[in-house]
Structures are given as structure tokens and as C-alpha cells.
Amino acid sequence: MSVINDTKAIVIGMWTTWKHIFRRPVTLQYPEEKRIPYPRYRARIVLTRDPDGGERCVACYLCSAACPVDCISMQSAATEEGRRYALWFRINFSRCIFCGLCAEACPTMAIQMTPDFEICNRDIMNLVYEKEDLLIDGCGKSPEYNFYHHAGIGVTQRRGAGLEEKPPVDVRSLMP
Amino acid sequence: MSLQKGFMPKLIIDNIAVEVAEGVTVLEAAQSVGIHIPHFCWHPALGKAGACRVCAVKMVDGPVKGIQMSCMLPAQDGMVVSTTDQEAMAMRRQVIEWLMINHPHDCPVCDEGGECQLQDYTIAGGHGLRSYTGKKRTHINQYLGPHIEHEMNRCIQCYRCVRFYQEFAGGTDFGVMGSAGRIYYGRVEGGQLESPFSGNLVDICPTGVFTDKTARFRARYWDYDMAPSVCPHCSLGCNTVPAARYRELLKIVARRNDAVNGWFICDKGRFTNSVVNDPARPRYPLVDGRKVGWDEALDNLLLRIREFGAVHGPESLAIVGSSRLAMEAATLLYRLFAGIAAGSLCYFTLEEEADQARAAITHLNDATSASMGDVQEADLIALVDCDLLQDGPMMALAVRQAWRKGAKIFLVENDVAPEAQKGLPFEWQSVSLLSDIPIREARKPVIICGRGKGMQDVAPALTSGVKLAYLLGGPNAFGAALLSAGHGATTLAQAVASGKVKGILAVEVDIPPELLQGISFIAALDWRATAIVKAAHIVLPTTAWVEMDGTYINNEGRAQRFKKVMHPGLPIMGLDPAGHPPRRHETAPPGGEPRPAWQVVADIIERTGTERDVQPLSGQWQWLRHLDAESPGQRIWQNMKQVK
Fold first, then answer.
1. ipTM at complex level
2. N or C, which terminus of chain A has less Cβ within 10 Å?
């Protein structure tokens, strides 16, 4: 009986092998052939702008705190009109593991991930991206969002003129 | 409730039996057994206000029942308290949600973010999504001066700021106005806050209404380099936590020490970061203005000292320390003095400062020395020749606390300018002589001696039970006086007057120019860009107090350890013209050459060949090595049998 069982096993095995020999290959001949990743693919990180063209990043340090490999560093500063921004912003892509925790942590939708995964380079210093390499001229995935319109402290508009805000109270008023 | 003395109410909090002193609140009783009840308006230094409603607990059994505010309720016998009761938790959760109704959505651009009590409790209470759809109230902010940023939209009306500013610190230019939903904390008109303690608003605000403008938008709490430290800007030795980032000292906050500064520090201690970040600071060893390495500089120093000795005789060299030099280096100066056979050893420059510090070590002992904690408990305080707000602002705050409890304050008329007394946050009576003060009638009298000439006259007033406090010249003036007396040192003024000083080795000391006339050789160890550093032939850069471990002995003889907060070096900001940090890797930070003063002194001693492997704090100072920076410090009399 063992002869029958052994023969059966060989035939089944060889059947699978031959079946795949005549199937169309799934391998792509990268880099000659390229595949377009989905829009939500997690690769090269960018800094986006709000619909008014201002930098969305307020340098709150949440992305650098969330980053498990410590590849994000920055220095926050204030513009003359009181807007908080990143004086410099650096991502070391030679260390980045593209986990997306920074984009998830970002409260202003500034840091976003793009499907551009081809960023290999011969010089490792070229993988250290500065702010000018990261900042793009667009809103990315959330085209309407402007953090300062919701923040509730003025800056881009008069105090009390933001969304979900009442006009400033008159402290000296006696009315209820 | 029994009122007999020593009665200790027993209560049960979350099934834990607690026994506390009478008058202690349920909130504090819970804290004493490690149960943290959320609170905004209650503060250990300010007491209760009952304004925030977030410390709600359920009284299950006992004299009161139902939901109660634990900060308002004194612990009573037989109370059974639950902090985890469903009803109490729901109340706390709703209070947080209700406080958040008007709170802006701006944590990413708020400097308090990451160290915000409101943020912590909001997350702890599970309030993640806003369900209230109404609009938020807004306010117009005020300019409050160069140190404090105002953002009233964030306010949760806990009254902590105004209770601190008016009641605790005696400020009159800041208060609360408006009614109902319009409650506003600020000044009548915008302008700089007048109180010398206004910086504490930053620490005391449970959210971001008041933030440190000098560190505005610079870093987050979790990125700070922090360590327990001691303030070096006067002799009181207030405990601080300096916060640095990218080799730049960003801000300083108060650290609690009930015997010294309590919970607070003064604005002088809080907002004097610029001396550490000063671009003019000596960063490299210099020989005749030329940058050299450490070995070359030290070899050159020894060579120059030998050459100087051959010309003028080694006895014409003075080694000068100061009251701002930490104990580690100060104790080594004598060994350096012996090693190079110098002529004079000075711990003080001017006679006045030395006299006053000598008076302090003579009159003070463990029984007579008044800590700031003792000053707060005093019932009579005599101020002799004090410029409190200049020489020790926190002492003025301590005197105010005593005054608030009913202590009588007497000001002995003196030669301190009358305008110095203007801003004092308490009321006093002027007397012309110390003997006019009824010191014997007081139970806990304290005499505070300032830096004027009158401090010599306090000796007759010293009877048993009188405590003394001195305001000295620098953070380690007491230690310098002990060493000065122990080694029979003179002052530089005396040594120069005798005419034999021709060369000076200055170790972290400011020397007035009139004492430098006729000096042919100057070597300076310092971290400040002082006049003597500019005039010196050899400059050896040392580290600032935040860049090293060290010890100061404060005005009451309390030795306190401070820890290294940051590495010395040029701040990253401004290193590269492109604005970002340099794009090349180095093993050592640029401008990171400064070494602790004791280490430089030890190196010089080793090069003289008299000693090997020089360590600071040996002999009778060995106990200082084991001082814990987190502890309240130790008074010298507890550790040294004979202090001379």
C-alpha cells in the first residue's frame, strides 16, 4: 500500500509544479516594468500646505515624539504675526521605517505619506531631507483643512472670528 | 468633631484606613496614601478655592454623604470615601468635558502642551471627542511684559493665578474681573507685570494661559534636558529645574523645597538664561588671544607662572576665588595655592562681602540659622540693612507669608536707599535701633541681615531663641567664608593694598578694574565674559552651573547639590548659515571645550607635580560627595563636627 501512497504523493506534487510552469508569471521586471502603488501607500514623507498656501506644519513636535526610530527633528519658531512654524525640519530617510505613525500623530494634517518609494541613493547624506526637500506646494490628501481656522486663538484671522467661535467678550459689560 | 489638641481623625479612602492631622482635607489625606484625586484650583501652597469642581468624590458613610469636593472638605472621623464610585467618576468626567467647552483646539501651538494639567486630566477622563456643538467664548489678550505670554481663551477659571499673585505674592496690578462667563484674569490696562514673582504664573497655571515668553515656541517637555539644580543668582539657593534643548538653556522652573524656596522662585532666577546662552562666553582656551588646545594652554599657564615667579617672586601671585565658585573648585584652591607656592589666597574680592560672610559663619549654627521655612513661621521679623528685592527676592516672599499669618515686621532704619523698600510685599514698622524691637516678647523671632554696614550690630540682640538669616553676596558665599576662615585667606583688596600682588589667577571671579592696576599677569578661569576675562593673558573656559555637577552652600549653611543639565557647546541654532543643523558629523560639539572649574584647577595642580589624581571634596568635605540633588540639602553642622 505504501507504494500506491508514495506514487500518489509524487504525482500530486508534480501536478502542482507543472501547473505553475505554464501559468503567467506574477513577477514584475522592476525597474523596467513599474507598478503604481495605491494612494494610501506609505512611502516618502512630505509636508503639505493649507488651502491658503501657508505651511501647515506648526512644529508641535508630535511627529518626532511618535517616531519610533527618532528620524524626525525640527526647531519651532514664531513668525512676526505669531504663527508657529518649523525653522528647520529634518527627516533622515536612511533611518525611517515608513510606519506612518508621524502622519497619524500630525494634528494639522501637515505631514503626509506619498506612494513614492524610489528614494534610494548612493550617498547616505542625500537621504537626510531638509524642510525645503519635504515641503510641497499643495494640500495633499485633505484639501479643505486649515488648522488655524479651528484652533480658536486667532493668528490667521481676527480673535473670535474663527470657526466655532463667539466674538471676544466685553469684560466690562454688566449684562448677564 | 473633637477639638482637643493632637486629635487625629481616622477615615477610610478607597478601603485604605488613613489617619491625618486635624484640618487636613480629604484630598490631602488621599494624597498621603498615594491616591491622586484630580484637581485644578487646589494647590499645596495656595490652599482651596472650590472653583474647578474636578476633585469630586463620593462620601459613602460618615458625617457627610453624597458627592463632595474633596479639597473643600476637612477629613473627619468615620468618613468613608470612594474616589472610584461611578457617580463621582461621572461627575469628574462631566466637569472636564464642561471645562473643555470653551477651551481652544490649539494644543499643537500651545507651549503648555505636554506639560499641561488640563490636557492630562482631559485624557485621563476619557474626553476624546467634543459632543457640545455650541461656539466657544473668546477673549482679547494683554501684553504682560517681555517674560510672560497671555492667552485668555485657554482659561478654565480656577483662580490659581490671582490667588498666587495677590494673596501669596502681594501683587496689586493683576487681578480678576468680569462676571459669569466673562471672568477675565489680567491687568486693568495691558503692561508689564510689576511683581518680582510674576514668573510663577507660568508654573501655577494648570493650562496655557500664562506661558514663558522667553522660551516661546522652542521645545516640548519630553525633549527638554532637565536635572535638579540650584539657582546661582543670589545666596538663597532656591531649587530649580533648568530646561535645555539643543545646547541652549530655554527656561527655568521652580522645584519644591519646603525648607528653602517652597514651590516658587523669583523672576531674577527664572528669566536670567541669557548669561548661559551668551554668544560672547569664553568657549576656547586662549593664550594671548590665540585659540589653543587644553594641553597647550595649561602648559603655557605653568610656564608663565614659573616665568612670573622668576621675575617677581612666586609670592607676588594671588589665587582668587569667589562666592559664585562651587564648593568642588573652591576646596581645591588651597591645594593649588600650596602647589605653586603662591603668595595670596583670596575667596573674596572686597572687604565688605568678606566681613558679612564672616559674620554669617560666626553667628550661625544649627540652632540659630533661620531657613526661609523658619522665616515663614516667624512671629516677629527684624530687617537690618536689607535690600530684599535686590539681594534675595524669595526672602521677601517668605517674610510676606509670615506677615500674612500675623507676624510683626520691623525695619531698622539704615543706609539702604528708601526706594529699595518700595516694592516690598508686606507692611512694616520703622525703628531707629535694633534694640527698640520687642524681640524678647516674640516666640519665634528672626533677624534678617542684609548687605549693608548695620549687620555688625546684631550681636547684642542675639539671645536664646532668636534666629538669624543673612543675605550674602553669592550662591556659595557661605562655603567661601568657611574655606577662607579655615585657610586664613585674605581678601584681594587687602592683598593688593599691601602692594605685593603682581599677578592674579582668577577663578570665576569678578574683579573691579581699580584692583587690576599694576598687575602684570592675569590668568582667568570663567564661563562669563567678564572684564577680567577680556583683560586676561590666559583664558581657560569653564562650564556654567547647568553644565556640570556641583555643590553650593547657601546663606543658611545648607549644602545643596546641583546636577548637570546640558552639555557645554554652542547652541545648534545659528551654527549653520542655512538655518538647519550642520550636515556633517562630529564627535564633539563645537564650542564644547569648557570644563568644570574644579577639573581645570585639578589639572593645574597635577601639572605642578605636587599631587596626582586630584579629586575635589576630600578631607572634611568628603560628606558633600554623597549629597543627593533630589533631597532638601543638608546643613553643614549636621555633618561637620568642627566648622571653622
1. 0.89
2. N
